[in-house]
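ARCHIVE CARD
Drawer: 12
Card no.: 0347
Subject: one protein chain, sequence and derived structure
Cross-reference: see card 0346
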Amino acid sequence: MTARDALAAEVAPVKSGRTPAAEGMVERRGFGLVMTHVGLIIGLLFIFFPIWLAFVASTVTQPEIVSPPMPLLPGDQFFENYRKALVAGVNSPVAMMMLNSLIMALGISFGKIVISLLSAFAIVYFRFPGRRFFFWMIFLTLMLPVEVRIVPTYEVVAGFGMLNSYSGLIFPLIASATATFLFRQFFMTVPDELAEAARVDGAGPMRFFWDILLPMSRTNIAALFVILFIYGWNQYLWPLLITTDPSMNTIVMGIRQMFPSGDDIADWPVIMATSILAMIPPVIVVISMQKLFIRGLVDSEK
């Protein structure tokens, strides 16, 4: 190699903007990126595989499930099994139980958000005696979950005649100290100049709340709605306690009641079809609210 060739070899990486060390770093970063994606895909497969097995089990016959090995590809009983689950079910139709769960989840979500918004608004923007005391009393209710206060709550609900009703399913669960705390912390970050400007423009407290605070809180509302909807959809103990009418069963109760007791034989295709149907509404809520949630985060960063 001549001196000119050696000089050209040294100058070439400089002209390209990358040194040999930098090229090595790029290669290592590319390999690490690939391995990261491989790890994510493997983790996704581990998570998705049980759901896939449940879906396959909902499309085959009972003998195909109980006779090993279990098939890994969907069968030809999809429409029959899902029709049987939605219309007949085991104790009550799955469509009715899903409607009950949907009403309960939406009622709890909207109720918690509305009450938490109003209570946080009152605590932050209104001056009244014992304001801080009442806030901490609300916050301390986090230490008293439903399981601890379930007996007195049941007595109150029964005294008002709300057993086997949507009001009995929803009203005892719509108070949320966590949501109140989150909205309070967010309202405290809102500049005082906004409230003063609204007051100068002649806007009352509720006009300020409706036109300014609510649009600014959409990120918190979207995130809390997703969390609270799933919380309400997955409720089991409280509906089990206050409902004795099969027509008021929720989907989580229905899945539990489908499992056999004693020498009874489980109808596994219908149970698996019910499980798949029970996952659909929460997945729809998460996917539909994700775009709004991310947009709210981007807007807040701007």
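Annotation on reverse: The chain has two domains: 3-80, 91-301. Residues 91-301 form a domain with the MetI-like fold fold (CATH 1.10.3720.10).
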